[in-house]
Every structure is written in C-alpha cells, then in structure tokens.
Design brief:
Blueprint lengths: L3 E7 L2 H26 L6 H17 L12 H21 L3 H4 L8 H13 L1 H19 L4 H69 L2 H22 L8 E4 L2 E8 L9 E3 H5 L7 E4 L6 E3 H21 L6 E7 L3 E8 L8 H7 L10 H6 L3 E6 L5 E8 L6
Parallel strand pairs: 5-7
Antiparallel strand pairs: 1-3, 2-3, 4-6, 7-8, 8-10, 9-10
Protein name: Two-component system sensor kinase
Keywords: Kinase, Transferase, Two-component regulatory system
Organism: Streptomyces pristinaespiralis
Length: 402
C-alpha cells in the first residue's frame, strides 16, 4: 500500500517575523517624514539626509532577512544593530540641540525593530544584549540624560526582553505539541496494526492452539508452539512495535510535523452500502436484520464498521460456544448509523474484559472499540452472565455518504 507524506508546520513565530517586516518599513517611512518636516531644525541636514538614505536602502534591501529565523543570521543582526547605533550617535552631529531637547534620534523608533529582531531570533537573552547597547548609545547621545531618556531606555529594555521570553515559551509549546502529535500518531498506528494482526494472525494462532490441543499427539506440540508465538506477538504489539508516523523538528519555521498518510487502494472514497458488507455474516447461526433501503456510508468507514461487527461475531464463536445464536440489527437514522450484535451465550464475567486487555487480548479493546473511536463513534458492550452479550456500535451520520 503506497504511503505519502505531507508536512504540516505549526508556528506562532512566523506572524511575528511578518509583523517585524511591516514594522521596519513603516518606521523607516516615519523617520524619513520626521526629517522632512523638521529639516529646518537641523544644523547639518546633509548628515541626517545621508544617514536616512542609507537607512532606506538598508531596510528595503534586507527585508528578506527578516522573513524568518533561518535568514535572520547573526551577522545580519550585528550589522542591523550597528546601523541603528550609528544613527543614534550621529544625531548630535546633525542636530546639536538634540542633546538638550530630548528630541528623537535620526532612526527614531526604527531602532526598536533591530532590537525586536534579536528578541524573536534568540529569545530574551539576545534581546537584553541588544537593548543594552541601544540604552548605552542613547545615554551617550544625550550627554546629560534626563528622566525621560531613562524612561524610554527602560521601556525598550523591558519590552524587548518580555517579547523574547514570550517567543521562547511559544517555541517550547510548539515542541510539546509536536511531541504530543508524534505520540498520538504512534499510538494510533500501533492500534491499527494491532487490529489487523488480531483479525488475522492472532486468530489463526489461537485456532491452531485449540485444534492442536484437541487432537493431541504431535498436533498438541504444534498447538503449544502456536500458543507461545501468540503470546509473544501480543506482547510486541502491546509494547509499541510501530515507529511514529509523525516526527517533530525544531526548525526555523516552527515545529514541523510530518504526517504519513496511507491512501486507500480503491482511490477516492465512494458511497458504500453497509448491507452488502454485512450480508456474508448471515447464516444458520447469525440472523441479519437490515433496512429495506441502502445504508450508504463512506467506503472506509463502512469497511471498518463491518470489521468491528466481524470481530464481535468472532468473539461469539470463540466464547459463546458452538451452539450460540447471534443477531445483527442495522438501524439507519438521520443523524447516525447503529449496528447491534447480540448473542445468547453465557455472557462475560465481571472484570474479564480488563483481564483480557492486561493479557494483550485486543478483541474488544482494539478490534471493536478502537475502530469505532477512530471513526468518531462509540462501542458499548452490555453483558449479563447467563443472559448473553450485546455490542452496540454507533457512527455519526457525518461519516455516511450524503
């Protein structure tokens, strides 16, 4: 059966990079407009104009660098911070009054974008490193810093560290979620294989063991060996033989989950009449009661439901005795499909199902309940010792063909 792989990326970090890209462009425009409307206040407007020209070219040319963490290298971050610090320290040269009037620096609030890049890339420690350099440059640029200067410096320092910390928490949450998906996928794959093995190999081994014991002689030894292999195989399946079908990675674009799909060999799912899948079960010891109209369902869901019915009937054959009778009732309701399997056997003793699961016997736990759970349905088992057993399988109508 062919498998195909699709990649799902989960990242709260990517929107932050997009927001940073927009922020750098908007604050670049703001710095230019601020100079245009206040250029008469500059003693050396050519110095300011020259720096702003470099700032515009740098910002536009490096937009791809702030697209994601992979492109935002340490070298770029160092160069970007250097541009911001240069603009701050050039401000007194372009406008000598800036030191005494607490006016904006040449890059203005564009500088915060450089610090935020550090925060998103490396977390709160990198943010603290970059904002400290900006703080020192602002204090040096002011000469005699005022209270407002210290207030602004502290605001940038605290805000950048807080954003860096949030990014680190988000990354950790993504890795945790990816790991949870990995475990969930491994569990589902293991359960699927366990159902398939139970419906085929394990049942054959159990039959060989029973028949060999009954025949005696060399057949008894063969039955004993089959029983040992059955126990070993159940232990392997229950212990997690199947590797994860989803793996997570800590990449620059967030946690990555690769989902291995097993497409249906029959191509796209087509509506299937559940009655045709259940009809082969009818016989001298099994009575099938069904609606007069087709019970249309998606083919994969119909096959899984029919397999669960088959597993219930297998349990009847194995545990209810050779003379037990079974009845299958199919109900097609507007909101769900219900299939009930009932027998007149001796029933199930209290605690027997839990004991069977502990022994690795998955007839009810996986072949029946597991299948219905994967389909979004439920499987209810009602048994009274001496009065038979009833298994009710319910699938929401959303799984059926419209």
């Amino acid at each position: 059966m062919a498998r195909r792989e699709r990649v799902v990326r989960m990242s709260v970090e990517l929107p932050l990079w997009r927001a940073l890209t927009a922020y750098r462009v908007l604050t670049m425009v703001y710095a230019v407009l601020l100079f245009v409307f206040t250029r008469q206040n500059f003693e050396r407007p050519l110095v300011a104009a020259g720096f702003l020209a470099v700032l515009v070219v740098w910002t536009l040319a490096t937009l791809p660098k702030v697209a994601n963490a992979a492109r935002c290298t340490r070298g770029f971050l160092a160069a970007d911070l250097t541009v911001a610090l240069t603009g701050i320290l050039l401000t007194p040269l372009a406008d000598a009054h800036a030191q005494t009037h607490d006016g904006p620096t040449l890059p203005s609030i564009w500088t915060a974008g450089s610090v935020l890049a550090f925060a998103i890339k490396g977390g709160w420690r990198w943010a603290g490193f970059a904002s400290s350099f900006v703080a020192v440059a602002n204090i040096v640029e002011r000469g005699e810093p005022s209270r407002d200067t210290f207030h602004n410096v502290l605001l940038v320092w605290v805000a950048s560290i807080a954003i860096g910390y949030v990014v680190e928490v988000a990354r950790a949450s993504e890795r945790t979620l990816a790991r949870a998906l990995e475990i969930e996928a491994a569990t589902r794959e293991r359960e699927r294989l366990a159902r398939d093995i139970h419906d085929s190999v394990l049942q054959v081994l159990a039959m060989v063991q029973r028949r060999g014991t009954a025949l005696g002689g060399e057949a008894a030894e063969l039955g004993r060996m089959a029983g040992e292999q059955e126990v070993a195989l159940r232990s392997l399946v229950a212990g997690g033989l199947v590797p994860a079908s989803r793996v997570s990675e800590d990449e620059s674009q967030g946690a990555v989950v690769r989902i291995v799909d097993v497409p249906d060999d029959d191509g796209p799912a087509q509506p299937c009449d559940l009655r045709t899948l259940l009809a082969p079960h009818a016989g001298a010891k099994v009575t099938l009661s069904e609606p007069g109209a087709p019970v249309l369902m998606d083919a994969p869901a119909a096959r899984e439901l029919a397999a669960a019915v088959g597993a219930a009937l297998d349990n009847v054959n194995r545990h209810a005795g050779p003379d037990a009778q079974a009845w299958i009732l199919v109900e097609d309701w507007p909101d769900e499909v219900i299939v009930t399997v009932r027998d007149d056997g001796p029933g199930i003793a209290e605690g027997r199902l839990a004991q069977a699961e502990g022994e690795g016997r998955l007839g009810v736990a996986q072949s029946i309940r597991g299948r219905l759970r994967d389909l979004g349905g439920t499987a209810e088992l009602l048994s009274v010792p001496g009065q038979g057993t009833e298994v009710e399988l319910r699938i929401p109508r959303g799984k059926a063909a419209e």
